C-alpha cells in the first residue's frame, strides 16, 4: 500500500519539473505547490496535486484499509469509463456464472 501513490507522485514531479514556475521563474518545486504560486501552475499539475493528496488520504482511510487505493492506471475516471469492477472473491461484479463452474456441473444441481 505505501507504493500505491508512487505513480501519481512521479507524474506530479515531472509536471512540476517542466512547469514555468520552476523552469522560468526558478522557484523550488515545494514553493510552487503552495498558495501564491499554485495558481500559476498548469491545470494538469493542479489536478495531479489534488489527486496525490486524495491518494495519500486514502492510505489512512479505514474504509479502504483492506482493499487499498485503486492503481492510477486502472481507475475508471482516468480511463474514461466502463469496465467491470471486481468483487472481493475476484469474480466480476457483472456477468454470468463464475468461470470455474462448467455447464455440466450446473445441470447436476
UniProtKB/TrEMBL annotation:
Q: Name one GO biological process term.
A: mitochondrial respiratory chain complex IV assembly
Kindly list the GO CC terms recorded for this protein: mitochondrion
Where along the chain is composition biased (Gly residues)?
79-98
Q: Does the keyword Disulfide bond apply?
A: yes
Highest taxon of source: Eukaryota
| Keyword Disulfide bond listed | yes
Q: Which UniProt keywords apply?
A: Disulfide bond
In residue numbers, the region (Disordered) covers 75-109
Q: Which Pfam families match?
A: Pet191_N
Q: Which family does it belong to?
A: Belongs to the PET191 family.
| The name this protein goes by in its record | Cytochrome c oxidase assembly protein PET191
Amino acid at each position: 500500500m505505501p507504493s500505491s501513490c508512487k505513480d501519481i507522485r512521479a507524474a506530479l514531479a515531472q509536471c512540476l519539473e517542466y512547469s514555468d514556475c520552476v523552469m522560468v521563474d526558478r522557484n523550488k518545486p515545494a514553493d510552487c505547490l503552495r498558495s501564491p504560486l499554485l495558481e500559476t501552475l498548469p491545470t494538469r499539475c493542479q489536478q495531479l496535486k489534488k489527486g496525490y493528496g486524495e491518494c495519500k488520504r486514502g492510505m489512512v482511510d479505514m474504509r479502504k484499509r483492506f482493499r487499498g487505493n485503486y492503481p492510477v492506471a486502472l481507475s475508471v475516471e482516468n480511463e474514461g469509463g466502463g469496465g467491470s469492477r471486481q468483487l472481493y472473491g475476484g469474480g466480476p461484479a457483472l456477468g454470468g456464472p463464475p468461470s470455474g463452474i462448467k455447464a455440466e456441473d450446473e445441470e447436476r444441481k
